[in-house]
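Box S2. Input/output pair 1.
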Amino acid sequence: MTKHETRDLADLILRPILSEKATILMEQNKYMFDVVPKATKPEIKAAIEYLFDVKVTSVNTQHLPPKKRRVGRFVGYKAHYKRAIVTLAPEDSLQPVFFPEV
């Protein structure tokens, strides 16, 4: 594994996903993120550990197929994206980050 530049790690994670499926996965201490398509699993792990100060046990990635979109008679595709499901150690959690106490 190569040494990662810490300022580059923050750019790998685009946004967290807070859908119904992602909320169900949170009960298992798994969190979903949209990431840069060229990001590797070790880079995603290093980025999550650096940004949130947690211990990551595994990273699963998905290359989702592009979705067709049309405007009138013109057909195009949505931009390519990659999704990562990150499993945290049992003692760590991102719940306070996503759902702060009101």
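Box S3. Input/output pair 2.
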Amino acid sequence: MATFLTRIERHDANWNDYVKLHVAMTAQGFSNTIMTNDDTVYELPPAEYYLSGNLTAAEVLKRAQTAASSVKHSHAAIISETNNSTWSGLKQVTRAAGTLASSRR
């Protein structure tokens, strides 16, 4: 199973566009959280998403483009396949159904 980090930038967007983007990305299977090996959950920076599955980077990009295009057509996206992530300064969050990623640090 592959894991991907995705960044979407909305061109000429306002905060409401990013809220709509989050809903659309969630509908495509993306999460805005990441989880450590000890099940601690952290919130990713705004407009960054996590997805894990039997997918290629091209398939993940297509999902991200579908979500982003449903809000506004002008956007930039980058997909990175990763097998190891580390971070600092991310906000720890409490568990909420449907928003947890299965990434392990």
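Caption for Box S3: Confidence is low (pLDDT under 50) at residues 97-105. DSSP finds two helices and six strands in the chain.
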